[in-house]
Amino acid sequence: MGTTVAMMEQGSRVMSAVHKRLHYAMRQEFKILSRVMSESLPQEYPYTVAGSNQSIMAQDFDDRVDVLPVSNPNVFSQSQRIMLAQTKLQLASQAPELHNLHEVYRDMYEALGVQDVDRIMKATPSEMPEPIDPAKENINAFDMLPLKAFEGQNHQAHIRAHIMFMTSPMVAQMPMVGVAVQKHVMEHIQIAAREHARQQLAQQGMQQGMDSELMFEQMVAQLVSEGLAQARQVSQEITGEGQQQGPDPLIQLKEQELQLKAQADQADNQIDQQKLQLDAQNQRMRSEQFNKRLAAQERQTAARIQSAMDRELLKQRNN
Q1: What is the average pLDDT value for the chain, to the nearest integer?
Q2: Quick one: pLDDT at residue 1?
Q3: Is residue 144 domain-shared with residue 112, that is, in the same domain?
Q4: Are residues 60 and 147 located together in one domain of the fold?
């Protein structure tokens, strides 16, 4: 990949220089046309377009505005635009929480030359978030969209819905989603604590001042602590943690699986022991057979030696 990119850069230097000079020349051409327009046009020049009449002023072409081409002098080919768009898409996919994926995909389609991008892609989310229900917030968490808590919401209902959402197995496999929802729950707890603290101070008739600000922060800290305890209690109620319940079916299945595995291991051990016994028996049989062959060879050797000695004695007697 690095060699290919280096070769492409080496081969594109001449074309890049030509493209930059064309960009500069087009800028000079636009400036000349603008100067001609400012000198030759009347003070107001009317023209007709579909549906209405428009007019242009001579002062629109004076020296206050510099006219520039919209092309990028550093990008001169579609392959280069596609390569840049692919690089942006790769980086954005590795850290989606740091990028605007909607705009990244739009740049990719535009680099490919797709004309109907708006028909393919969904509408861009609003820049200013609005209060939405907790179900929609959970869906946005899957899409890695930012979550925002607002004052005046039913914070307890939101917290309970989000905690139930975090206990699902799918969220357990997506830690980034769980972290985002957990931060959102903390935001609800903080806003609820501040709202409650302001209500208590208003009921007590406290005036604005340093003492009231200090008391406000102390009350917020106390209410945040209570909110965290309540969220913990809700989590225990949903998950059943700390309650006396019957045996968990999953635990029973796991125990049965362990028992079956132990029985299989025991059977494998018995088979291994039987194999060892057979191997030892075969080894003894081979050893006995070897000893028998060795004894037979020794007897044959002794018989041959005795026969040779007898023949030698007969020769000596005959002589």
Answers
A1: 82
A2: 55
A3: no
A4: no
Of the three residues 56, 73, 90, the one that is the final residue of a domain is: 73
Q: What is the dihedral of CA 110, 116, 119, 121, to 10 degrees?
A: -10
CA count, 13 A, side-chain hemisphere, 120: 10
How many independent structural domains does the chain possess? Answer: 3
Residue 96, classified by CB atoms within 10 Å of its CB into exposed (0-12), middle (13-18) or buried (19+), is middle
In a domain, 81, yes or no: yes
Percent of the chain with pLDDT over 70: 87
Q: Are residues 118 and 158 in the same domain?
A: no
Residues 188 and 212 in one domain: yes
Claim to verify: residue 107 and residue 158 sit in the same structural domain: no
Residue-number span of the structural domain to which 93 is assigned: 77-122
Largest CA distance in the chain: 158
Task: Write out pLDDT tens, residues 76-92.
Answer: 677 778 888 888 888 88
